[in-house]
Amino acid sequence: MEILRQRLLDSTTKQSDLIEIFAAIDRDCSGRITYEEFHAAMKLLKLDFNNDDEIKQLFRRFDTTNNGQIDLAEFLQQIKPPMNERRHRAALHVFNSMDINKDGKLTIEDIKLKYAAQLKAVKNRSSQNIDYTLKKFLNKFDTRGQEDGIVDQDEFLGFCVMLSATIKEDIYFEHALRTLFDFRF
User: Fold this and answer.
1) Residue that finishes a domain, picked among 47, 79, 111
2) Domain span at 30
């Protein structure tokens, strides 16, 4: 895995190039990499695999949802470099500020309490419509294939790591978090 990660990172000039690499491997443009597409890409990269079983094992490490395909989030999760300590702290601050009841999970109720003033301004929406919209919002953070409307700390940090991979400077990463979540550090 480390050899593949290093080869791909060395071939990029910016982290967002990883998305273009994903698109190149995804030959049928389905938004998911099949085993066949992955296998072909590994052969083209001429990594020293002893046999096809090693490629299959690597594919399984990428396919964290075990659905036989690798989506962009899974790909980036395995390839991207980890967040540095400053970014990790900033992401945790944002998560903790939204986790109103401090149970380690973001729920519709947490979001309603955190953003009550903004939600109050939406006068012509029913409570049911707001709940539906907030659940869809929370499901965007889902990294395990379970759209349950609940975001735990790992899922939120997974989102932040993907965001981090596309932003070069720490200060811009923090700015993106502040803008996205209306948070003051």
Assistant:
1) 79
2) 1-79
- CA dist 114 and 58 (Å) reads 41
In this prediction the pTM is: 0.65
Give backbone dihedrals phi and psi of 33, rounded to 5 degrees, phi first: -100, 125
Q: For residue 123, give the DSSP letter.
A: T
Instruction: Please check whether residues 74 and 152 belong to one and the same domain.
Output: no
Residue position matching structure tokens 């399984």:
60
* Backbone torsions φ then ψ of 34, nearest 5 degrees: -80, 170
pLDDT of residue 184: 53
Asked whether the beta carbons of 77 and 64 are under 8 A apart, the reply is yes
pLDDT band, residue 182 (cuts 50/70/90): confident
Alpha carbon distance 23, 184 (integer Å) = 35
Amino acid at site 112 = K
CB 111 within 8 A of CB 137: yes
H/E element, 151: strand 151-152
